Amino acid sequence: MREKKLEPYPLQEEYEEYYAIPNTYSDSPEKSRIELRRGLFSILKELYNEKKREKLKRPLRVIGLCSGAHALEKEMFRTYNKEPHKKQWQEIIENTNWLTIDIARIVKKHFELFKKQNKPFTRYIRHITADAGKTLFSDNYFDLVYSNLGLDFLPREIGLKELNRILKPGGYFMLNLHHPDLLQSIDNKDEGTKKFWSYLQENNILYTSPEDIQDTFGRYGLKVDKIELRKAGFEKWWEVNGRKGLAADDNY
Ligand SMILES: C[S@@+](CC[C@H](N)C(=O)[O-])C[C@H]1O[C@@H](n2cnc3c(N)ncnc32)[C@H](O)[C@@H]1O
To answer: Ligand 1 centre from 64 Cα, in Å?
Structure first.
């Protein structure tokens, strides 16, 4: 299995430049956020139901890794903070500690700007500038960890190890991962995206098949329940759902 050692985070400066213009997020296909937001809403509902059954006596703990310009979170609020979902959505987010992190410092600057503009998502989410491979959260902390086309920028042994560490046993993860074919549409992309995708290609860190994902995640204690191949035109990505195992062979 490929486990290439990489220079830890060489794209930090490039991403800071890329996001210098607010609302730049064309490095991730728009459609990649549609299924993800649906899936996340359904996991949040499940977690909240557990909480209502008194299985969880504290707020839900949710984190979005490598959030970029918060395109996903903004869309979630736009979609669910209105009828027919509003009541349920409000109940859930009032009972959730929701964090996002990204290594690019400029994301925090934009977040603060959105906060001043009173954008709804900034009332319920806290954003931190941090390296997703080396966070300061305690072990087994989060109920749900998600990332849209972000976690696979990290070397697997760093990204997956940290995901496993911060997720509680039985906790959910939902990730979109770049598919190697995504890079075939690179010619139509802006210069920034070309740079990021070339990095993924040149460092050969992309998963090649569902089995590759299943095996690799399994080695880090992460049980993959479902892998969907998603497409928008020529662009493809894997949508990976699963949970952290309780122990070697336990069910959730
Ligand atoms: C393709 S963008 C995805 C952004 C966002 N999730 C979206 O859907 O638009 C990848 C993001 O990963 C972030 N990133 C890369 N390495 C990181 C690391 N080690 N820790 C935290 N963020 C990282 C980059 O700054 C960038 O914002």
So the answer is: 10
Whether residue 7 is contained in a domain is answered as no
Please indicate, yes or no, if residue 5 is contained in any of the structural domains.
no
Q: Does some domain include residue 249?
A: no
172-190 confidence digits (pLDDT tens): 999 999 998 877 777 777 7
| Atom of ligand 1 at shortest range from CA of 104 | 25
Q: What angle do CA 114, 118, 121 make, to 5 degrees?
A: 70
Q: Is the CA virtual torsion 153, 182, 174, 105 positive or negative?
A: positive
Query: Domain span at residue 84?
Result: 12-244
Q: Binning pLDDT at 50, 70 and 90, where does residue 82 land?
A: very high
Buried b / exposed e along 196-227 (16+ C-beta atoms within 10 A): bbeebeeeebbbeeeeebbebbeebbbbbeeb
Structural domains counted in the chain:
1
Residue 252 lies in a domain: no
CA of 154 to the centre of ligand 1 (A): 9
What average pLDDT does the structure give for the chain?
A: 87
pLDDT value for 90: 97
The 10s digit of each residue's pLDDT in 122-164 is 999 999 999 999 999 999 999 999 999 999 888 888 999 999 9
Q: Which residues contact residue 38 at a Cβ distance below 8 angstroms, ignoring those fewer than 6 apart?
A: none
> Which one of 11, 103, 109 would you pick to mutate in the ligand 1 pocket, going by the greatest count of ligand atoms within 8 A of its CB?
103
Q: Which residues line ligand 1 (CB under 6 A)?
A: 9, 11, 15, 25, 27-28, 66-68, 71-72, 101-104, 131-133, 148-150, 153-154
Indicate which CATH number applies to the domain containing 26.
3.40.50.150
Ligand 1 mean position, distance from CA 42 (Å): 24
